[in-house]
Give the backbone structure.
Amino acid sequence: MKKKTFRMTFNLALFLIWIVIFLFIGLRSPYFFKPAYLISTMLRNIVEIGMVALPMTMIILTGGIDLSVGNILVLSCMLGGMSAAATGSSVVGILVIALVGLLCGFINGIVITKAKIPPMITTLSTMYLYLGIARGISQGNSVYSFPAAAWMGNTIIGSYTDPVQLPVQILFYLVLAVVFVIAVQKSSFGRKLFAIGLNENAVRYCGIDTDRIKIIVYTVSGLVCALASIIWLGRFTSVKYDAGTSFNLKVITIVVLGGTSINGGVGDMKGTLLATLIIATLNSGLTVMNIPIDAQTIIQGVVLLISLIAFSIASQRARSRKVIKVVSQEKG
Amino acid sequence: MDKTILELKGIVKSFPGVLALDGIDFELKSGEVHAICGENGAGKSTLMKVVCGVHKPDRGTMQVNGQEARYENPLEAYHSGVAIIFQETSLFEEMTVLDNLFLGHEIMKKAGPVQVLDYPAMAERAQEIFGRLNVRIDLTSPIRRLGMAQKQMVEIAKALTFNANIIIFDEPTASLTEREVKALFGIIRGLKEEGLGIVYISHRLEEIFEICDRVTVIRDGKHISTHPVSEINKDILVADMVGRKMDAYYPKVDTQTGEAVLEVSHLYDDGFLEDISFTLYRGEILGFAGLAGSGRTELAKCLCGLSRRLAGTVRMNGRELDIHRYQDAKKEGIVYVSEDRGKYGLITDMSVEQNITLPQLENFVKRWNLLDKSLEDRIGEKYIREIDIKAPDADFLVTNLSGGNQQKVSVSKALALTPAILILDEPTRGVDVNAKAEIMKIMSDLTKQGLTIIMISSELPELIGMCDRIYVMKDGYIGGCFERAEATQEKILNVALEASKQDRRAEEANE
């Protein structure tokens, strides 16, 4: 129980950080506060990263990591776009994208669990593998969007007369976010994820097939990458093989900022959502304020550092409180 | 002779959830062998770890060779003359004897502008020390080629290279043959005559009467008594150690054992277990004794599908079982409670109830696999009540419980699966005396209700007190079986040790 209250406070801290950043930027640059800007620019720009951060939280909770998500995204984009162009069919494009994402994630999962190679190294290798394949197949050329992808990336719900127009991908993101929050925080599957991250041996000795759970998690991650890649392709209309280079680290940054321990077992899906909001606000807000891109990167680094330090202080406090309690029980 | 070289006063050491040492006094004179006695978990090893700087005491003072001492690490202790020789040696297997002896305090010489290792000087010093010990060892041989006894000699010699005058032996004879024990005692007597002080920790009471001058008993982290060995006998010592009557301690009730539940025949795992056959009867507690590494845990794992079975059959109620994974064993009602709670047993950062429900989460969900907290609460509270886990509520984190209560959570987790056969691997390891008695009581009650238990333990009194029959394992096969009435510590130990003697002889013959 103790742990729960503590997590709440960390989420609260994240929320406060977000409010401060949000107000600071908003007061400096009033244009920022317009709902139209917030939703159709700020949130729309983060959707793909935010989506992939959801399964990434699951992966990191189990003590793993996936460095190849951006490359899965680009590879499925390319193969999907090319097959849609070749057949003239959006359905084929979507199917290929889904299949490639699924397969790439599944390969990660199989290698990690069956060959027992650490996730960091496995996905580092597949990152290069998927990047290389994307480059080879596209021969360095751009791959173009197709109608279904364009719909996913550019549809706005609501007409110009409505006060708020909602890009359709935000709807997808919200649905996905709700599903992931419930799956991780409330379901038996989520409980097992935490357990694996805390002590995988003990989970195996409970007669739980930990390999199966991990394969599922990496495969789900591949699938979500595929979904994100459809939106991504639609939004940018063309994608080159090197588009996903910084994507991997951005996703991991969000998860870590959200209070999920990189060692696994400790974390909160809601923290990931808040962190997504913070990064989105920073990205768009700093651009609105005309802060040069290199300074933006520095600011992001500083925010990440501050929140990590806050997290570590908070968890140390929680631990020492626990010890004191136990000792006083002994005496009493 | 009578100079006090080590004096401890009011040493207190606590770990989260456990008060390991509660104001211990201890005194060692030069030229004396002073035994420390106590059951497992009494605090002997913790006390010695405080003396040699592995743990820092919370309170209390320590005087070494007349000076106040407070060590930051074991190396500091070494340099001021305190050396400890652990049960398992801390030598580097791949390095030579000589390198191990002087590791961290090598003798150097000047070679022009740089310092280099002075091997001739080190070899000379080593020869001199081994000469004193009257031991011959090849200084250039890597440690891994040496036998247990020889490794111990190297450890002793290492202590002497630091000019240690206080040497602590922690269960030095646990894995030695009789002849090797005699040789070791010869060396200890020699050191004693040189005026060193020896602290001798052992379970084997005969050894204490043979080699020691005084004996201090500790129990539950408290100093109980210190006697000159010449003034007491075994019974007094045992009474001090146990602090209560044996039959209260092992509340085994005679149960009617029924028909055969599990028949294991000619079982092999992939490389270690050899031709294991035994039968388990309904309602009995079947013990497995043996030295560490004799294959008891491997057998349990093999039965449960946690390791591979290469040959042999396992029949349960006459039906042949086909167990490949632990999931299969669980389905048949065979449940294993690991000896290593922290590593394989519990998820200590989760709550009591979360640990209990983890093996069967599918039974604690509402629709869509969402967890049902009220069901979890109910089972958590049920076991807190029935097994008497001392936790404020079922949401309490396991890491904040004492070792004994953690073990009870482990057992509860297994019981919640309503097993037919429960395999308990070292159920009382790292558990204080009272919790131990409680766990014994729980086991006894369970068999009354018809549960069948396999109990693996390194503590012979516990096995003899609790089990209907005891199999003794050695080097991966079953070396003997004793009925409750005929089992004694001596008989079991003889079987458990015999194999290692044979093997060593075979090795010597090969060389």
Remarks:
- The domain at 2-331 of chain A is CATH 1.10.3470 (ABC transporter involved in vitamin B12 uptake, BtuC).
